[in-house]
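[Automated response] Your request has been received and processed.

Submitted sequence:
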Amino acid sequence: MIPALYLSHGAPPLVDDALWVSQLGAWAEVLPTPSAILVVSAHWEAAPLTIGSTATETPLTYDFWGFPQHYYEVTYNSPGAPDLAARVATLMPDSEPVAHDPDRRLDHGAYVPLTVMYPDATIPVLQISMPTLDPQRLLHLGERLRPLRDDGVLIIGSGFTTHGLPFLDDPSPGAVPPNWSTEFDAWANERFAAGDLDSLIDFRAKAPGMPYAHPTIEHFSPLFVALGASSDPQQSPQQVIDGYWMGLAKRSIELT
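Generated structure:
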């Protein structure tokens, strides 16, 4: 069965970071080739659960401001995934209504890492919204999506292990990470290694470095979709990428 991933996707300039590109590219090379990719990104919160466009001609969502023009000219023309969209809808219970947004395709939480992992853009990609930021509900969403992995669908929760942008004194790529970022990252490392699901769910109260590491929690929340989609959310995942960029922890994990 293909694994589920939680990865730290970063801002558009992360594609200029040679280390991150090499790490993410090497990771993709050893993964089984997906039949399709389903992404839940920190940058799309919408209730009810909303399925994005399956049409390649729908423009990418450039959901960032103040960057050089060439970042707004990036394309990623992966095939649409209408069959996957239909399957996602059938996996939701009557209590979980499903909406469709034909005008919203992939945002940078999806296409930025995919341009590195699968640059040929030949694999169908679908993005769905996070209908909530509640960890338990996102775990349940991941559980409902888990059967897709049997069909070779790569489920990606795309966020960032720390994301305290308002509290960065030095936002340069090679900045020394602040204490709140290193403390939260060390805690996440330990909790992942221990398979401590309960503490991860309660990260807002239990993790050091809060609330600075996540003044808003949408960048840690995709983790719980990936955990729910795994065979055992209390497993110790493979921690594939660690380190920092702009002082933010880019720890990323693979779940079987």
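Summary generated for your ticket: The radius of gyration is 17 Å. The mean pLDDT is 96.
If you did not submit this request, please reply to this message.
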